[in-house]
Design brief:
mainly alpha; 66% helix; globular; 22 helices
Length: 438
């Protein structure tokens, strides 16, 4: 198995290098090539995970580092988000509030021609929290779009490497090194950071750091890191729900989180910004990548689907609280982070990246399958490149729904067998996470 493991890790690095070839293909071929590489990388990751030796992680760490560095110069051909990041940062540097100024403003025509790529929604102010805007502004200090793009790629690559470093320490502290491949060789982390260069890489680093601090019993610092993550992308903030519900010390984390979030937003207001933006607009009018939401919308209509989705998110957050109160706080964090993604109208693959460190700490079939199948939604880019039309096919949603349903059934069956051997447990044994004492 050691040889299989080394081959799988090495193949992952080679496949990452093939992304440059996919980027050089003509329209229609780029997206198809990228999707194929993504799926092959997923197979390599799963093979490396299943053949891993718990105490021999040097090779997998090296391959994870090299894979991230290999993609530093690859163009961001799967998204236009980076262009929007740099635009928002440039506006902030010029003293213009991106939260109140949409790119369509006529006075910004010359700046728009230089900094904004095609495909960016011109009628929406920024949707990103203040700490993310600060990162965008740092990259925009490069002075021109090309230099700013390179700076941003360096920032995101550093965050991805930081997530790997923190996760190595996290899994070692929890005695879960055998699951390191799920982070080191995660196609979501490596490609969404190296190719998409999404700001979610910083949210993922925040979750990994918070988990490590919680394992070590440093609740205040963990809460502060969650607060930083929420100031970059809102999703990490939901991890506070199960963390707050932990017995005895959750309130300390809440203090750390609250202080950081309040400080970031107060500083933003002090600089003359109005950090609200247009986050709700896309979710009110768009639908993409969500099997649950699509089903609800077809059956109930958009208005009723919205009400059911709010209730569904609240229910899953309640489950995360129950898990945390029963000592299964890692599983609670997973459920809390997944809650809005399960019911959201819009679920792009990179939205799931903050889940990866938590899933590696306590893997389950349903989460591993969901993370593996989510990139199928990149199918929409194939037709978008060929015909210039955004028409998502339904088969990726069916595949994601069927795969996660089968995995959930398998998890439940395993849980039933485990509970039959542990009749005294109040919650399924599969939801247990054993961590070393403080």
């Amino acid at each position: 198995m050691a040889r299989v493991h080394r081959v799988a890790c090495g193949a992952f690095v080679v496949l990452c290098a093939l992304v440059y070839g996919a980027a050089a293909l003509p329209a229609g071929g780029r997206a198809a090539g990228y999707l194929i590489v993504h799926l092959l990388l997923t197979a390599a990751m799963l093979l490396a995970w299943r053949s891993a030796e718990p105490r021999r992680v040097g090779w997998i760490i090296a391959c994870g580092v090299v894979a991230r560095l290999v993609l530093l110069a690859v163009p961001t051909f799967t998204t236009v988000d980076v262009g929007r990041y740099l635009w928002d940062g440039k506006l902030a540097l010029l003293g213009i509030d991106p939260y109140r100024t949409a790119p369509i403003v006529p006075e910004l025509a010359l700046l728009r021609a230089e900094w904004l790529p095609r495909g960016v929604h011109l009628d929406l102010p920024t949707i990103y929290p203040p700490a993310a805007l600060g990162l965008f502004a740092l990259a925009a200090l490069g002075g021109d779009p090309a230099t700013a793009w390179l700076l941003w790629k360096v920032f995101v690559t550093a965050a991805s490497l930081g997530t790997l470093w923190v996760s190595v320490r996290l899994l070692a502290a929890a005695g879960a090194e055998r699951h390191l491949a799920l982070v080191a060789l995660s196609p979501l982390l490596v490609l969404e950071g190296g190719v998409g260069a999404h700001v979610d890489a910083f949210a993922t680093l925040a979750i990994a750091g918070a988990l490590l601090l919680l394992v070590r019993g440093r609740e205040v610092s963990a809460g502060a890191v969650i607060g930083l993550g929420a100031a970059v992308k809102i999703l990490p903030g939901l991890a506070m729900v199960p963390v707050l519900a932990r017995r005895g010390s959750g309130w300390r984390a809440a203090i750390g989180c609250g202080v950081v979030v309040a400080t970031v937003y107060a500083a933003s207001l002090g600089l003359g910004l109005l950090p609200i933006g247009s986050l709700a607009v896309p979710f009110r009018s768009w639908s993409f990548g969500s099997p649950v939401w699509t089903t609800l919308e077809v059956v109930l209509g958009r208005a009723q689907a919205s009400l059911v989705s709010v209730g569904g998110v609240a229910l899953l957050l309640g489950v995360s609280v129950v898990l945390a109160r029963s000592g299964r706080w890692v599983r609670g964090v997973q459920v809390a982070l997944a809650a809005p993604l399960v019911f959201s109208p819009v679920v792009h693959p990179w939205y799931l990246t903050p889940l990866v460190p938590a899933v590696a700490l306590a893997p389950s079939g349903v989460f591993v399958v969901w993370l593996s199948l989510a990139p199928l939604t990149y199918e929409v880019l194939v037709q978008a490149e060929r015909r210039g039309v955004w028409e998502p096919a339904s088969w990726p949603l069916w595949a994601i729904a069927a795969g996660t349903a089968i995995a959930l059934a398998a998890d439940c069956a395993a849980t039933s067998r485990a509970n039959a051997r542990r009749p005294s447990r109040l919650l399924p044994a599969s939801l247990m996470v054993t961590l070393p004492p403080k």
